[in-house]
């Protein structure tokens, strides 16, 4: 009889208390874990991070995401700038990326349609493509319901272009061309006799200097933004008119996934700004996110991506902002003092962070 007392089913009266105790042990961690997740959820999300002090854009995105909408819905609040190309025309480059699905929609050199981010989202939602360009991108956006055709030039951009023309179209993005100090028409300098290498090098140095002027603190219109919504999902977007007085047809890093911005839901996101023609050769935002995936903190990941570019192009101007899944963020820059904007729970308004080179 003593042996039978050790057999569990020999005492049916103990089965219910034992079951209740086991259920309590299993349910307790679940409840505690749920409470912990709620605490982190409330403290860190939602979150909006943007390059530069584009305060109104950050506030607009915050109002949307704080109301419970998705990160993708919030990103479409990013607006365009107003930089003219060599012909005085304003065109749009834009990108949106969903960090959950890794879907991307983008438009480049788009004419006649103002809402670049909304057009990019239509590409993502209603096509199997990633990037549409030029007038065909405009036609697609209009056919899908966006307003247009619209003249994208403003009085400010027109005045800016007129002053540039009066200054003999200087500075510009031409190099190794003749005549070097005029509004063209241009020809390759190797077709002109008596043009020695010294002149060519001088033109190249002038080009580097003029690039710095156009991507400086007060001469850019690119906004890149990352949003984490209440569910912890990440989306990113970029909108720009590109470099001032760019050669018509030029596409910068704005609509290029991995360059101007990038997002992976389980890792984090990155936003970039600066000399897109150089930065797009390195895909700095892809580099940042992948570095964070391997365990780097946002600050180190951002600094590493910028350093990779600076080693090859020590005169470039640029910056990145890194944002991990925890909501931790940091920036890095080269050649200028960079600022980025953040809004998160507990903040009364947007906070601007300054990053020194």
Structure write-up:
This protein has 357 residues and is α+β, with helices and mostly antiparallel strands. It has a domain at 47-102 and 210-355: Glutamine Phosphoribosylpyrophosphate, subunit 1, domain 1. It has ten helices and 14 strands. The strands form three sheets. An eight-stranded mixed sheet has the order 4-3-2-8-7-1-13-14. Strands 9-10-11-12 form a four-stranded antiparallel sheet, with helices on one face. Strand 13 (338-343) and strand 14 (351-355) form a beta hairpin. Helix 4 crosses helix 5 and helix 9 (284-293) packs antiparallel against helix 10. The longest helix is centred in the N-terminal third of the chain and has 30 residues, at 15-44. The radius of gyration is 26 Å and the shape is globular. The chain starts with 14 loop residues before the first helix and ends with a strand. Mean pLDDT is 84; it is low at 1-16, 18-43 and 192-207.
Topology:
Elements: H1 15-44, E1 47-51, H2 55-66, H3 71-75, E2 92-98, E3 104-110, H4 116-126, E4 131-133, H5 134-143, H6 155-166, E5 177-178, E6 187-188, H7 197-214, E7 223-228, E8 234-240, E9 261-264, E10 268-274, H8 276-279, H9 284-293, H10 298-312, E11 318-324, E12 329-334, E13 338-343, E14 351-355
Parallel strand pairs: 3-4
Antiparallel strand pairs: 1-7, 1-13, 2-3, 2-8, 5-6, 7-8, 9-10, 10-11, 11-12, 13-14
Helix pairs in contact: 4-5, 9-10
């Amino acid at each position: 009889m003593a042996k039978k007392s050790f057999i569990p089913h020999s005492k049916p009266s103990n089965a219910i208390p034992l079951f209740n105790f086991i259920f309590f042990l299993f349910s307790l961690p679940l409840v505690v874990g749920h409470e912990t997740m709620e605490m982190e959820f409330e403290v860190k999300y939602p979150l909006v991070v943007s390059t530069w002090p584009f305060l109104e854009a950050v506030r607009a995105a915050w109002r949307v995401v704080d109301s419970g909408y998705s990160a993708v819905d919030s990103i479409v609040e990013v607006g365009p700038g107003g930089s003219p190309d060599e012909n005085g025309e304003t065109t749009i480059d834009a990108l949106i990326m969903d960090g959950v699905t890794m879907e991307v929609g983008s438009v480049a050199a788009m004419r006649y349609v103002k809402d670049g981010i909304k057009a990019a989202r239509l590409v993502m939602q209603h096509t199997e493509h990633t990037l549409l360009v030029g007038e065909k991108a405009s036609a697609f956006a209009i056919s899908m319901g966006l307003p247009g055709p619209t003249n994208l030039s403003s009085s400010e951009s027109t005045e800016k272009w007129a002053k540039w023309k009066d200054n003999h179209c200087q500075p510009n993005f031409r190099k190794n061309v003749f005549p070097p100090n005029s509004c063209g028409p241009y020809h390759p300098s190797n077709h002109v006799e008596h043009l020695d290498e010294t002149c060519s090098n001088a033109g190249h140095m002038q080009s580097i200097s003029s690039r710095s002027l156009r991507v400086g603190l007060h001469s850019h219109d690119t906004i890149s933004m990352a949003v984490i919504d209440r569910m912890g999902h990440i989306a990113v977007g970029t909108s720009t008119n590109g470099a001032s007085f760019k050669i018509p047809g030029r596409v910068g890093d704005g609509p290029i996934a991995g360059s101007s911005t990038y997002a992976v839901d389980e890792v984090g996101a990155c936003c970039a700004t600066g000399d897109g023609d150089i930065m797009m050769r390195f895909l700095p935002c892809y580099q940042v996110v992948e570095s964070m995936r391997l365990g780097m903190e946002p600050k180190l990941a951002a600094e590493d991506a910028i350093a990779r570019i600076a080693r090859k192009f020590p005169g470039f101007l640029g910056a990145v902002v890194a944002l991990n899944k925890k909501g931790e963020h940091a920036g890095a820059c080269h050649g200028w003092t960079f600022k980025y904007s953040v809004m998160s729970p507990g903040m009364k308004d947007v906070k601007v962070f300054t990053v020194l080179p």
